[in-house]
Records
---
Amino acid sequence: MAQTTVKQLASETGIPVERLVSRLAEAGVEARSAEDQISDEDKLKLLSHLRNAESARSGGKLGAKRSSVSLRRRSTSELKVNTGRGSTSGRTVNVEVRKRRTFDKGNEQTDEEPVAEEVSEARTEQLEQERAEAEAAENAKREEEQRKAAAEQAQRDEEERQRAENEAKRQADIAAQKEAEDKARREAMERERAKHGKQAVQTDTTRSRVQENLRRAAESHGRTDDDIKREKEREQGEKAAKRKELHVAEGKQGRRKDKKKRGGGGRRQKNVNVATEHTFERPTAPVIRDIEIPELITVADLAQKMAVKGGEVLKRMMKLGVMATINQTVDQDTATIIVEEMGHNPKPVAAESAEEALEQEVHAEEEQVEGVTRAPVVTIMGHVDHGKTSLLDYIRRTKVQAGEAGGITQHIGAYHVIHDKGAVTFIDTPGHAAFTRMRARGAEITDIAILIVAADDGVMPQTKESIQHAKAAGVPIVVAVTKMDVPSADLEKVRAGLAAEDLIPESWGGDIQVVPVSSKTGEGVDDLLDALLLQAEVSEFKAPIDVPARGVVIESSLEKGRGPVATILVKAGRLKRGDTILAGPHHGRVRAMFNELGEQVKEAGPSIPVEVLGLSGTPEAGDSAFVVANERKAKEIAAQREEQQRDTKLAQQQAARLEEVFSAMGENGPAETKDLNLLVKGDVQGSVEALVESLRKIPSQEVKIRIISSGVGGISESDVELAMASQAIIIGFNVRADNKARKSISESGTDVRYYSVIYEAIEDVTNAVNGLLGTELREEIIGLAEVRDVFRSSKLGAVAGCLVADGAVVRGQPIRVLRDNVVVYEGELESLRRHRDDVNRVPAGTECGIGVKNYNDIKPGDQIEVYERTEIQRKVDVAETA
Ligand SMILES: Nc1nc2c(ncn2[C@@H]2O[C@H](COP(=O)(O)OP(=O)(O)OP(=O)(O)O)[C@@H](O)[C@H]2O)c(=O)[nH]1
């Protein structure tokens, strides 16, 4: 039988020990001290005594109410546990046993005397009851929450169903639209292919393979494996959303609320009610993006743009029949198909550099703004010693900032003249060479050309050249007849000479202003300025002002203490100090600006030349300059320009070639005619005229032959520059290029054709413009010897002591004798000797003796050209271009 001490019972029942001892005594149980043992029987005795006492106290009411009594007991014991692993000691575990026993007495009345202590029993019971009530309330609440959750779930399910329905409808629409687009594209491609015939066979094959697979995919109800997979994923996503499987991080507020609800020691609340408006929902429909596609793109970049893995793109490509690697570049068409196939919207974009974008931006802005009248920009050209520099100097000395002492203190490559009736800007580098060089670089800065003709000399070869350059550039000409103060001045002779060059003076009924001037006396200089302003008025030179400034570099240099200095002629807008500019491949902030007087200026408008300090390097004359929004953009474009500079140089040097004339026509479409620019030089006026006449008459439907210049004499550097600037081919008839011109030809790659028979020249050009196949006789100069001295021997006749300047002189090859770059004799070698020995070949840098067969008129200063005739196949492929 279980025994317990009085003390233990006292603590269990919450009755003080002394009181319990006295109650036990009253109940007839003998227990005197706290340590005395009492049995269960004793406890029952005590209980019955207490009930009776309580019943007596409350008049039996309490006993009637109470139908059961609960007793709780707690006992603790020790348990030895063997931990194993050879341990002998084991471990001691305290075991606490709690028991509760309830005595149900029904409504049985008791006559035992009730006692005050029984109140504690009643409190215990009341606590139990409260707890039960709390539990019931909680259960009710939980049920209510579950009911609410179920209602919400039902609503969500309904929404999901609606969404799925809408999505299915949308997908169906997309599929229908896609099919229609595919069909249209296929038809367009078919048409395109039919139109262009064979084009990039490789690309076509790839594309057609892709198209074929596309078609097949479309046939299989437009659903590919990936589509099915995507649908499955979507379904799973929907299910997951329904189950609310995703871990949801509630807002902080929600969490705090939760804590409050729990209270201290409260039962842990289950996180049932999830606030759905804060949840992350996995997208249930694929995201359709607009994908920009450049002309070339790597598979990796394409995947990144579509936010998918590279492998997925490769897989899709494989299905379309294109094998590729992740780093492989695909063309725009292929990329477009892939993007479409992957369910996105392809947006093909034309390759556009940051510079092109900037230029477009600038032009768009300029177009929106009304231009204001600006000063004309003038270049002076003419024959050597006809007075270009003297005239410029006179104007500069007397007209710059009229009335101010000092005049120009600095040479900056251009200056600005303010005249009574307006302003004129002069480019301070006279001569057509500078003009043409600028043109060749794409910088058309000259508005008017002043053609200088000395009154005592008349129209000379370089005058004619200047006329041709100005005409080729389409620049209006004003003629200044200089040296009018010289007694031998003959204005009428000059007028006649001009008329012969198709420049009919106004006084002769034409439209060319001819102004007689003298740089010595200043006579006529004002009239010249008036004439320029009149021409400017007629031409209406305008430029926008309220736009970001842009201009052209006139010249630049690296100066000690100032760094890179560039003279920029502003073409539009106002260039200001502090602006970020880009000039050629260099950039920087305009640190300071100076005018031609060396004065600092804060800003410069259109047609004003200024020296600019602050660039990172020295740009080239003809480079364009732009004001850009920020340094970053300037740097970006500068870097691009640097990279492009080599290509640009190459492109500029990519002179027109006769063989390419016909094939290049297709580029602008068959309907568009193409100009073939020719520059003709010949030995005598008669042959030049005959050649020009015949060339002009060559019949061609697609090519318009333009003779941009023709003249007598050897081919000069200036001829080559003009040919470069005008993309012209040079025809040399019995003439050759001089040393400087040869260098320029080899640097620029200009196509120069030498002929000695007019018929051959005509045939070559005719064949080229008609795209005819066939062979062509090409002459290649293999050696050039300069005649230093001439010896005469009775046996050999005239023997030329020569130095081989270029290539090699080879026996057995045909030769020509050139005098001032004009062919004076054609024939063959009689003898080739070195130190009295007959030799077959003499290389460059070596002296030798040359005897020319049947020609004894050779002179020191002549050149002997050795050439080779080869038959070459024309490059033009009629089959391809037809
Ligand atoms: N009397 C007189 N002499 C002039 C006039 N203009 C130029 N000269 C003289 O002609 C010569 C050549 O003049 P420049 O101005 O050097 O001629 P240019 O065309 O610039 O010559 P290059 O630079 O060699 O092409 C010089 O001796 C000048 O003094 C003029 O109007 N009257």
---
Amino acid sequence: MDWHTLPETPAYADKITIPGWDEELGSAFSVYKGPYIPGRVISRHKTMWDVLVSDNAIKAGISGALSRTGKQPVVGDFVVLLKQAELNSHTIVNVLPRKTCLSRGSAGNGSEEQVIAANIDTIFIVTSAGKDLNLRRLERYLTVVYSSGAKPVIVLNKADLTDRPAEAIDIIRSIASDVPVVAVSALSKDGIEELEPYIGPGSTVALMGSSGVGKSTLINAFLNGSVQLTQSVREDDEKGRHTTTVRQLFVLPGGGVIIDNPGIREIQLGDYSDGFEKTFSDIIQVAHNCHFKDCTHQQEPGCAVIKAVAEGFIAGERLESYHALNAELAFQSEKADIGLKRLEKKKHKGMQVSPREYREYKERR
Ligand SMILES: Nc1nc2c(ncn2[C@@H]2O[C@H](COP(=O)(O)OP(=O)(O)OP(=O)(O)O)[C@@H](O)[C@H]2O)c(=O)[nH]1
Ligand SMILES: [Zn+2]
């Protein structure tokens, strides 16, 4: 064979069958030669990770070097594993660049943000028709999703319980600008085909929304009975004990991936300032016309936002929600600042030398 006809792509490239894998990951991985294989994290335990590799799921720990960087693999991460066949062991040695990153803000202790999941393309914000429908909560969810880099889709579930789903959709659209809003019934599967474009081969979705809106029912509908969602896997850990793990990443029959993780379900509002500006882009746009540059849109004269509310262009509740979220963000970042100061103090303390240490130091010289 003439060498010109050799394929340009490395030999492993066509063997990689990890859902969500793409060319970019391929080129990031191409620097690894030898006993390294790629994988995708299914779920994380304290010091062990379940990882999907070409055609099965394995358990892996992480290397000391990766551990020292402080970068912990999370569900959805694409990782590089060192495979030691003779020891029957896999070790995660690196996390490949994340496309999107869903994290809990730096709430409380001022420590760095906590990443919950990575590489989610689309997040279904699930709400249900009827009394769960809460526009203010939807705005919070939108804020979180925008900050992660994923694309939001609002799913109005239990459409079978309302006579007027179109009305509910209109209400949601009033705050959602160009975010798709889809009415479905997870129970009867009515309308779920409208969600199919987001769960096609290679795409990764996650679901967010309060308890009882029907997230599990929806996932089961996508899975089409191929996996039992609540199925827990009983296996022996490295010490021979039985452990029970719950899968958090599912491959759909059509090739898409669904991530279902308690941290995403129960997401709290943290430092999501970027997403905040996107969510309230209408208010921020109007605010350019406020008389004062630092207008807080509370009661200042010449406030264009208050004027827009009075004239009915912006809903009063929406401005209230803006103020409430703004206050919360300010509070969170203040808390983070306080935490930082505490840390700085601590660091300083560590550098202080006690009189005894100083004496010993001088004596050694
Ligand atoms: N009528 C109707 N009921 C639904 C629909 N989808 C889900 N339900 C019901 O709503 C209840 C809650 O559904 P789940 O799927 O457990 O809700 P969830 O969002 O996963 O709840 P958590 O696990 O607490 O987060 C169940 O009794 C479902 O049968 C729907 O489209 N229509
Ligand atoms: Zn103003």
